[in-house]
# Entry
Amino acid sequence: MTQKIPALVLAIALLALASACGGGDDDDAEEADPGQATPAPPIAAEGTETAGGGGAPVSVVIASSGLITGENRFTFGLLDAENQTVDGLSGSLTLFNDPQGAPEALATYDFQFLPLEFPDPENPPDIGGIYTATVDFPGSGLYGAQITPAGSAEVTQGLRILIEVQEEAAGVQVGDQAPSSDTPTTVTTDNIETIDSDDPPNPQLHELSIAEAVQSGRPTVVSFATPAFCTSRLCGPMVDVILNVHDEYQDRVNFIQVEPFQLGDDGQPVLNNGAFVDGTTFAEWGLVAEPVTFIIGADGVVAYRFESITTQDELRAALDAILA
# Structure
């Protein structure tokens, strides 16, 4: 199945960013002009192959950020030449070392497609799901990978990509005490558009500050995600995912959405030299890319950290485990 991805707004932030979605410093900040928005280009694979029957190229879009030594949840999407997602496939991912020298295959992993669910089935976002694989990187550095779908008429050859791996991830990690951030709420702000870029905003995700939530004695989901100003190809629907799970677990779990970037009084991102300015809480948590979703236990300790787009089933499984 294929689905259309529209041009993402305010892509001028990509001048400072490649595949990640970080922001900038707040010196000499100014608010964005929405009239300057331009389409965001896809993140091209190192090599693209033609679709079945001599069709147009298919590109891999790496969704994961902050990949580190050891076992990782690696996520990606596939785009055809018409900027549509290629969904519903499965197959294998083969990892290579020394991709720019004499590559040697290290291991092969299965990948699967995880569909997304949305609160409004009549008006779903433009991404039907995400591809995931559990990949073990033996060390930091640059790796090559070949993604080979099985039994696909759309992708008949392996797709080659480069993957950069760090020794350690940035920011708050599993096992850390969650920072008691005094995030704004619907009680402490008169203008919800300064803390929520969705249209319309979601006040149910701003009833408590993070500080209040981690002291409440209940588990808490904190998602650093922006509905309107996502600067990668596969991060926009994250808040829709959170809303869906919120409706099922709100009587037992706190839910908070935090905009990664500073928003002005008009709801537009604040810019510095063409880059989005990181929000105070985003910086306090030491994050460099979005979306990132944390599940915090009733004791205030981070139990799960999900990089990039996360599906409802993944969140449900984590919440069920922490509530058991």
Remarks:
- The radius of gyration is 19 Å.
